[in-house]
Amino acid sequence: MNKITIFDRFEIQLPSEAISDCSHQGSCDDGIAYWVNKNIVFPAPELIRAELKEYGAWADYELADDAKNRERILWIAAGNIAEEEKRPGSGGSPDDGFLLAPIGDTRLLLKFLSFCV
Question: pTM score, two decimals?
Answer without folding.
Answer: 0.75
